[in-house]
Amino acid sequence: xxxxxxxxxIAVEGKRVFVRVDFNVPLDPxxxxxxxxxxxxxxxxxxxxxxxxxxxxxxxHLGRPKGQRNPKYSLRPVAEALATLLxxxxxxxxxxxxxxxxxxxxxxxxxxVVLLENLRFHAEEEANxxxxxxxxxxxxxxxxxxxFGTAHRAHASTAGMVPYVSEKAVGFLIxxxxxxxxxxxxxxxxxxxxxxxxxxxxxxxxxxxxxxxxADRVLIGGAMAYTFAxxxxxxxxxxxxxxxxxxxxxxxxxxxxxxxxxxxxxxxxVVTNKVDFDGRTLGELKIAEGVIEDGWEGVDIGPKTAExxxxxxxxxxxVLWNGPVGIFEIEASAQGSYKIAHAMAACEGTTIxxxxxxxKAIHQSGCADEITFLxxxxxxxxxxxEGKPLPGLEALKTRTSL
Length: 402
Ligand code: AMP
What we know:
Blueprint: E1 16-20, H1 37-51, E2 55-59, H2 76-86, E3 90-92, H3 99-106, E4 112-115, H4 123-126, H5 130-137, E5 142-145, H6 156-160, E6 167-170, H7 172-186, E7 192-196, H8 201-212, E8 217-220, H9 224-231, H10 246-258, E9 262-264, E10 268-272, E11 275-276, E12 281-282, E13 285-289, E14 297-301, H11 303-314, E15 318-322, H12 335-346, E16 350-353, H13 357-365, E17 373-374, H14 379-385, H15 391-394
Parallel strand pairs: 1-2, 1-5, 2-4, 3-4, 5-6, 7-8, 7-15, 8-9, 15-16, 16-17
Antiparallel strand pairs: 10-13, 10-14, 11-12
Helix pairs in contact: 1-2, 8-10, 9-10, 11-12, 12-13
Bound molecules: adenosine monophosphate.
Residues 197-200, 203, 222-223, 240, 298-299, 323-324, 326-329, 356-357 line the site of adenosine monophosphate.
């Protein structure tokens, strides 16, 4: 959090505090909030601001209305759900900019909350338009970002408006993301073990390169393992591979060696002769050790690999997992990911799950409560793990680091 304020650093009493939250929640067919996890996650920041006398102005996007006002994507149902959770009224405003919105906010009492209508009803939000940014900034004495999932996007509400507000900070949700994805990952207690899976090597190059500078051990799974296997001259049958990345995989293997990082590849693989992803079924299943025959494709790490990886995980002081190690959406090929999840749950060190599909896999495994930290961002957590700047966080820096 170098150069970034926490909300604890700012006196908010009596001030209009604009909080960019992530209320992009699923709605049911009757237009009610179907899952309030994201609203609940924002409560600590909102409650803190209310307890400290702020006038809280909440703003979010919901869905993809593509710059058009569309009642299907209205945040009104979220205002109702939030009011119930906070046990106090939440005033819903029909727009997010303009004189009527400004007037309503200027009349706010301390300790009160308004929720603005969907930011993405204006195309200018995603276009990071300067005038729109200024119109949003007019609503704020203090700017707070607590929407980690969009922190990697330079939109008006995440980046554009920030320079026009004098005081700025991150909320508790982002603070926690930074504590784990930056703090614990960059200064890990050792041994530090990283589990990397997912569909493509190409998506994870930045993360692999970055963790080779930090980890003691990297355990590879998922489809990306087959591109590494090709790089080692092994046959992988019909498994999903990226032939254009074989050379890169070779260089990553060499880099790991040069940096003394123990990079492990699967020693066995669950293979099938048919994947019906939509029907959630697989054909015949068998375990391949070494070679995967033509006509068969890898769908999960094998039991020996799972056991070996689980041992490494249990004996680490810090574990970071990004990307499922098999097609976890199908129960028969989710077992490797479940084994990783259970080993992380059993590990006494700090365990971190880096967002996206992996978080779904952890929930499916029933181990979510035993993990130290589950990231809420997919793209944002990848970008942070790659060590790349996030526009939403850069905008908040009040001083440059030395
Ligand atoms: P990512 O978004 O890169 O973390 O990738 C997640 C996706 O990788 C999931 O949809 C998994 O089904 C997929 N995946 C993991 N292992 C495999 C595999 N062996 N073959 C095909 N897809 C896989």
